[in-house]
Amino acid sequence: MNIDTIALHAGYHGGNGEPHALPIYQSTTYNYDSTDHIGQLFDLTADGHMYSRISNPTVACVEEKIAAMEGGVGAVCTTSGQSATFLSLTNILSAGDHFIACSEIYGGTVNLLAVTMKRFGIDMTFVSVNDPDEVIEAAFRENTRAVFGETISNPSIDLLDIERFAKIAHRHGVPLIVDNTFATPVLCRPIEFGADIVVHSTTKYMDGHAVVVGGVIVDSGNFDWNASGKYPGLTTPDASYHGLVYTESFGRAAYITKLRVQLIRDLGTYPSAFNGFLLNLGLETLPLRMERHSKNAQIIAEYMEKSDKFESVKYPTLESHPQHELAAKYLPNGCSGVISVVVAGGRDGAARFLDHLKLASQVVHVADIRTLVLHPASSTHRQLTEEQLVAAGITPGLIRFSCGCENVEDIIADIEQALQYV
After folding, report:
1. In 3D, which of 374, 348, 352, 349 has the Cα closest to residue 361?
2. pLDDT tens digits for range 118-127
3. CA distance linking residue 422 with residue 419, whole number of Å
4. Residue 196's Cα: distance from chain center in Å?
């Protein structure tokens, strides 16, 4: 099936006389007929749901749908995008390990990776998506265990050359983890270009309506953990499951199974059934919305580029974007609705512009069905140092303009009236 059909039909399949729409299984626990069956569940030798801290039928249908949309062998939903990023890494990293991340990523993720995870004894090194191969190669250490980047960076709108980074990571026997939040599988499927793990903040386009915070991790099933020889957590016995070896028992789904039955079990970062239900509603219209978001953003970016009130406009389909050719390769059907634009007059100019918008909402959110704007240096990236801001491509006048699904003429009219104050 094509992805727009998958978005509607994958995951839940109502049987004869059963609900047509995905039901909400609002229960913490599940009935079984025997102690033997429950024992098999805890030994991971039988399928089923034992407790909603680990899995839930409603959320499981959503996980199956997202895995199908991304082309993976399995997925696990989480309570936030930050949780998804954290678990995707800590599923294969321990104290004393090291990983590499692109500097052009979301500010909250920068803090998670460079500050919080270091408190757990996990070290990391930043590289740029624009660094040549030799610079990226030099960042690897004997204890490097992963490479992390964003398909479309937030908010600088830089693109990750997924295929290039995947080849570099694989030469060193480690997986590439890609945050595909802005692109969504509708516009780009990183697994097809060599990514091994895909994460999302489902709070953004997947939900699309600013009603539910969430995240998801998708396993491609393609990375050979045994051949790498660097991941004993997956290839040696797990004492908490009577010596079970994930790669032996679950094959291609070893990574995602371990993440659920070990990390989700212990940390409890699993979403509720109702949150899964709401996310599914968003997924059903995701292909339609991404087409409109991208179309509006293209028109608005072209309009902004002609105005002298904007010092620069960054959107991948513009010929002025330094990675225009990468956009044609990875994002041929659109580049989402997010534009990175620098307003004339620096921080003050940006504030005047934002404070006078009427249709667009100034909120700490992005990738919503309504047009949203934000000044990252004052909000989402406020905790970054000046050096980190520069590395992330954030200048004082930069704003993140997230085009919604309103009529594009109305969005432009709102921009025009606000520009009178710049």
Report:
1. 374
2. 999 999 999 9
3. 5
4. 13
* Kind plus residue range of the DSSP H or E element containing 166: helix 162-171
User: Any bridge partners for residue 343, and if so which?
Assistant: 310
In terms of pTM, does the model score above 0.85? yes
Return all residues near 403 (Cβ < 8 A) that are at least 6 apart: 293, 296, 297, 300, 337, 338, 339, 371, 411
- Nearest to residue 11, comparing CAs of 277, 368, 288? 277
Output the pLDDT for position 396.
Answer: 84
* 392, pLDDT greater than 80: no
Rounded Cα distance between 328 and 331, Å, is 6
Mean pLDDT rounded to a whole number for the chain: 96
β-strands 398-402, 372-374 pairing: antiparallel
Q: Which two tokens stand for residue 183?
A: 């692109």
Residue 259 identity: L
Spatial strand order in the sheet of 123-127:
74-78, 215-219, 197-201, 176-179, 144-150, 98-102, 123-127
For residue range 365-378, list pLDDT tens digits in order. 999 999 999 998 77
- Distance between CA atoms of 87 and 90, rounded to whole angstroms? 5
Output the CA torsion sign for 250, 255, 258, 259. Answer: negative
Helix, strand, or coil (residue 24): coil
Looking at residues 55-63, what average pLDDT do you find?
A: 98
- Supply the DSSP symbol for 130: T
Instruction: Report d(CA 268, CA 288) in Å as an integer.
Output: 33
Q: Residue 129 and residue 104: Cα distance in Å, rounded?
A: 7
Query: Pick from 371, 373, 367: which is nearest to 355 by CA?
Result: 373
Taking CB atoms within 8 Å and a gap of at least 24, the contacts of 117-121 are 117/86, 117/89, 117/90, 120/90, 120/95, 121/94, 121/95, 121/96
CB 370 within 8 A of CB 404: yes
Rounded CA-CA distance 358/417 in Å is: 9
